[in-house]
Amino acid sequence: MLRTSPSAILLVASVWVASVALEVPVASAQAPSASAEPTTGKDGSKKSIEASPRHPLDPLSPDEIRAAVARLRKDKDLPESIRFVSIMLAEPAKSAVLEATPAKMPAREARIVLLDRAKGEGYEATVDLTSDRVASFRTLPAGIQPPIMMDEFSECEEAARKSPAFREAMKKRGIEDVSLVMVDAWSAGHYGNERPEDRGRRLVRALSWNRNSPLDNGYAHPIEGVITVIDLNRKEVVRVEDLGVVPIPQKPAYWARDAVKPAKSDLRPLDIRQPDGPSFTIQGSEVRWQKWGLRVGFNAREGLVLHRVSYDARPILYRASIAEMVVPYGDPKETAYRKNVFDIGEYGVGMLANSLALGCDCLGTIRYLDGHLADNHGRVVTIKNAICIHEEDYGLLWKHTDWRTGQSEARRSRRLAVSMIANVGNYDYGFYWYFYLDGTIQMEVKLTGIVNTQALRPGETSRFGTEVAPRVLAPTHQHFFSARLDLDVDGQANRVQEVNMKAAPEGPENPHGGAFFLDVAPLSRESQAQRGTDPSSARFWRVINPTRTNALGGPVGYRLCPGENSRPFSLPGSALLKRAGFLTRSLWATPYRSDERYPAGDYPNQNAEDQGLSSWTRADRNLDDADVVLWYTFGHTHAPRIEDWPVMPVASIGFMLRPDGFFDGNPALDLPPPLN
Question: Does pTM surpass 0.70?
Fold first, then answer.
């Protein structure tokens, strides 16, 4: 939710270097892929050996990234001022993937976003790796700003520390040594009040915190009243907006293990073992578990992506990801009202993924997958153990006792977890996709980390946040996540329905006042499929395939079951909702188009208007018997507590996809009884 501080970025960069990614040659994209044989790491975890890409949806390999950069540099004679914003797989056309055979594979392509810092221009390129050529190259329209890059975090902090105006603002607040000042590169957004001299510039509006020692928690010491406007292309401070001195809170808030003593000593070890190994297998990027099959992808923008999810070879999801993430803050003061970050569109959570550790981030018999990316100079970076795959016991799945016969049966639930964790400045987000034995798919986001902070004046209070430490305000805010779900329920000819529980009208059908029923309404066009949640009617949505029927003659389907959710509290017409119109509805549905990937559009950074869902759906396209994509936005409203300081316990939010007529009965009935 918050921007990664430059100091945190440097730490992440050092972790990358330490955990890496010494570049290991990988076989060519056309070579057959070997099975991923597990090896045992020093920590006892199982590590899958990376296999060379062979499937059209496999993420780019290190060799492919290097080849794409080399070809683009050679063909376009790129100047020194060029930076590589992102390099990701250009996913082939859906039809090409579905029709692919070993003898007929679509071309492997890399999609590259670049920025010429000298000209201030952005570019998009596609490199065909199969034929080793630049397939396309275009200049982005004027005013479009590519996402903020990793290098720019540290450059932002460096520019601020060198600025005489910034040093003078710090001196007013008693800070002579600026080396420990944290300068977080907050995206500038677009609010309609931009100064004429700012137009066309690549800007951040940085906020600052002070550390009293190198390992101090700087968020305990917010520097209030200072906004540092920085031109990222020029790496220079445009101006410092000083709104007045507020004394810096001084109470420390340490959270690392060395500072929190004594540790509790009454917890016994919890050891989860699978002596016969896990029940799932991994070959390349393909995972198989029970009757589930799926492919695991990873890219710089969305991070973890799922492809080709099926049950017993029956397709359910062609692609699933968290495609956007917006975190608006509720404090109206000058230093705070612009804090409405698009963590995926303006930054990218894949670049901020953690190297996961056994026993901390994941527990059990683990398999890991690495994430291969490129830094801003086009060099390969590998995040070791970026994705964790393991099984978890999940309590009771089903049970029944017949008191007449004495029969009693129970089966325990188990789920396959596929996860990644990203550090986004002060916040940390865990993204978990779960697959269950009864055909359920769950998406859960776990929110933790350190709340963003502001300083209060002595005696000041605020109704726009919670004082979590003396004069340290944690403002009220929201976290919104938009899931893009390309559903292929037993095929691509799908329909969308909304289902509400309703009370039957008083009368002959409901003589006693207690009758209620499911009311099913088709959502046949995009204009109809813009919906909110409604707990009062137990609302859910269903995607059916009318060309496939179950044993009772009904269409097969899956239902989307909302979990916790919240509407945005930004008023209609606000700058936020102009830029993120998708937040105004919990559910949108569109017919599949390969170029409609992100709900706020491809380039939300400093963009004035939403170029995504609210724009596309004006066409009011047909959804009946279509290749349907559901977009589900779920929001967590965070009213901070004192207990959230200095590191907040996990808050969870998400949704489920549950079979609804997809099977002819309980698909978990045939599970073996517990051995014990």
Answer: yes
